[in-house]
User: Fold this.
Amino acid sequence: MKIAILGSGDVGLTLAAGFQQRGHHVMIGTRHTQKEGLQQWLAENSAILAGTYSETAAFGDIVVLCTGWTGTKSAIELAGIWNFKKKIVIDVTNPLDGQGPDTEGRLHLSTGHAKSGGEQVQRWLQDSHVVKALNTIGNQSMVEPSFTEGTPAMFIAGNDDLAKLAVTDILGQLGWKDVIDTGDIAMSRHLESMAVVWCAIGFRKGIWSHAFALLRK
Assistant:
């Protein structure tokens, strides 16, 4: 497939490499196509293309949203709403307020707990199939996750069942053996709260090599 990655930070680059290594055609969308660090990375990953948000969104059969939350709406607008129409959009974002952790290691969601970033993205992209995924883990474990204490689970949420099946398959290609469908896009509220918990553990313990799992009897 052609996979569009919107965002050229660590998350976007990690997923771009992961998808390319599995035979997909990948393009990264960014505001700064000539950024030195990105150009060096592209030189080392020559099969991956880079372009504007608009070029990238038009390129992709599937669009992966990896932007920082404060720039997400702008990125979508620059990409062109029409370039998302009828496509699956994997929403990896977390709507953090950018203030950093408090004394307990907690980050804070700018949306509060009565709504979510995933729901907001779906409202912005009403003709797309938005699936929240990959927001409850650090980028270093997004591809081929491996943990000594068990099999990690990836939790997803979205309104379209077929889109969620497609995303489950994509996650399986990235090495996720346990993908849990938690329900419609409103469940993003709880998945984004899980991201706050994941980060709090990291800040309090000083370790970032942990993941959630679902145990069954």
